[in-house]
Amino acid sequence: METDVEQVDASTVDPVPPADTTPFGTSATPSGTTPAAADATSTPADQSDTAVPWPDPCEVAGTIRFVAPEGSRVPEAMLAVVDPAVRAEADRLTGEDLRAMYRDMVLVREFDREATSLQRQGELGLWPECRGQEAAQIGSGSALRPRDHVFPSYREHGVAHVRGVDLRELLPIFRGIAQGGWDPVAHGFHLYTLVIGSHTLHATGYAMGIQRDGDVGTGDPERDRAVVAYFGDGATAQGDVNEAFVFASTVSAPVVFFCQNNQWAISAPTTVQTTVPLVDRGAGFGIRAFRVDGNDVVAVRAVTEVALEHARSGAGPVLVEAVTYRMGAHTTSDDPTRYRERAEEEAWRRRDPIDRLRTLLLAEGLATQEFLDGVDGEARELAAAVRTYCRALTKPPATVMFDHAYAAAHPLVAEERAWYEEYAASFDGPVASSSPSAH
Amino acid sequence: MPQLQRFALPDVGEGLTEADIVTWRVAVGDTVAVNDVIVEIETAKSLVELPCPWDGVVRELLVAEGQTVDVGTPILVVETEDAPGAAGGDAGAGAAGASGGTSDGASDGEQETSGGVLVGYGTAHAPTARRPRRHEGAGSAASPASGAAASVAAPRPAPVTARPAVPVAAAQAPAPAAPAAPPPAAPPAPAAPAPSAGFASAGHGPSALVSTPTSSGLHVLAKPPVRKLAKDLGIDLETVTPSGPGGIVTRDDVISRARQGEARTLATYPGDDSPWLADGVVSADGRQTRVPVKSVRRRTAEAMVASAFTAPHVTVFHTADVTHTMKLVARLREDREFADVRVTPLLIAAKALILAIRRHPEISASWDEERQEIVYKHYINLGIAAATPRGLVVPNVKNAHAITLRELADALAVLTRTAREGRTQPGEMSDGTVTITNVGVFGIDTGTPILNPGESAILAFGAITQQPWVHHGKVKPRWVTQLALSFDHRLVDGELGARVLSDVARVLEDPSRGLVWG
Asked: For the Lipoyl-binding domain, which residue ranges apply (chain B) (predicted)?
């Protein structure tokens, strides 16, 4: 019937191949064969699964990984290219170390989940979830020594936890009743910075102060210190971050720039923010750089140990790109379903850092089910304590804003305080809610 | 002692003032635990599930699905056991209510500092929270509200109790000269919206079914037979809007409240010989009912109006012999690779449309009125119009041009299942490029579909029926369907529309054409 020969236009036959979405092209060695890919050999239809548009960016060559997504150790042969110092650090980790990090990761995830619920119940104004980034945070945070100092952005709940900050102290600022919440000096953990990237300059300045104190390169582990600045992939596009790189590099400041590349700067994917892996930026600034699987806590810990030692020794700054994934929303005000797909989230769920470590612990006999259950129980208790604490938080008087304007008493501040108190007293009673039915 | 906790709608974004109640996930009588999902709400930003703050039993749902409520409005009542420390800030409210005679001011202040639920900074509540300044109040007594304000400024002549029209205050503090001298502003929630309008509007809008914070029905004014009626009907008097003099709840108020809560049922009115729809509020003569426009309905209406009156629609039709498509569907259903997915003629029609658009990419476009440009989309996000319990939604399969037939089948299955469950997310409906409306599933031959806004074409896929058809020179029973393609004549001319529809038909008539064009 079809006598009219159709002009078959070869140029229009093939649509844009989905493989184009692979960041930076090379999908080198599929070290971590995902379960889906493992099944893919049977039928032609399934072969398309191997080309799903959500490739693992950690399979780009040069990304350090010791534990594959399904929880097994990466074969020895594939580690040949890894920096020997990093390998040595990874080998040094004991079952005890891994269990401790596992516990911290589970606790932080549960805390994070509870805080998100509290926001949904109207107890917090906002909450930035860290779900999915536990390995990047716990792994790097646990490599720190007490005298090191951290400049976090606002999502580093895991680092706060390993720095000894009571997780509950993170809540008041997100309830809108405090400017900070913990003692940055006591914990070596600075206050959260809500402005993107500005704290990388603060961190660099702090590191230069350490240099001037002479606490770098003495060889005395009790004395040498380093600074870590945590920021995200989006921050790398900020001028401040690039300036910090220049400063730190040119003066060899003892600072580790720890970039958690969680693939999304709110709604902008990494692929539209950079044309090269972020780790490659280090070379341009003359900064030593590592790219690590940020969901592999072993690799993150090992790389950060080496990076910190590099900085403490006076050899200059280090950039670490920890490739991870923000499994939740940017904050509770954001709706990721508007800009990313379920399939992508699903692909990353299979690379979950906690599942990966749990599988490893069980496979290598480093943890018992009893231990895992105990940690889960602890997490539940933590969540309950967090809930109770948050609900009992009270609003401080407005005059606290005068308390921390200066370290010492200041006559002008005292005067302004007195004026304000008089002004506030000119209203009838406390400034109470006039929405009677809200309670 | 058990306590009643009220869950006030929180601001789940930053500075949102209202949200739609989409789906209640709990019902009265359900036992709930902390962080169980209780309700799904839709804000200007997203669909959000709200977790329960308490362990307890659901006693009341204060707002209906589809209703838009202000942040801060109580939406749910949960009865909790009195566990010290676990109940949190709201326990204060319950305690204050129970102790009755205590100074309102004290409990007010207590809540302010005991961690009462934050209900959205940046909303309408904040500015009104201030008490009037002393040295300003005296002179300005213009409105009733500022009249009260002015008297506040004077050395406490107990102005609230001087307002007998406020039933709550009257009931709670019967002695006008209470020694505690409660700070007079803001009596706790007038049960009736009526007399003290100034105060009522300071809280939240009149839309709230319930505006009293008290935890028992004691403060609602109603005659005993009406109370009995309410009890028999299972109506909480607090949820009834009173219309009687002085804020008294009347018999009619209770009955109309009961009707509001009725589920969708069919009813027969006197004089009717067949049942009619009876949800919503029945009019006085029993001949009409009114229901509020729910969010999806409203959005559908807006989208359809916008589309119909901006894009000049043209529809072209084509009747096609799809016998080969039906055979292909039957074969694919036997195919091992399609074993666990449903294969339907719609799948082949979707593929046919994709192939047709690939051959005529100019139709994958939209009109940018503002910039006077035509936007050509180098991708196909294929929308499927789906009738769901919440109304019409059009989720789309992203990058449908880049996936295999098997993947397309999977995507359609997920998309329709998600839509049917009412869980389609806004992102899944945005950025569509073309839509199929499968009117055939309702047995309809065809129609003239209205474009999904922002798209330039929509295909109606009619019912497939066996009909006499001239096939190889003889009349044979063949599977035949009608296809209709509406397009936006601003950027698609008749020729292009006709070619696209013709190509869709050619693939359906002879699916092997897909090999040539694919």
From this structure: 4-79
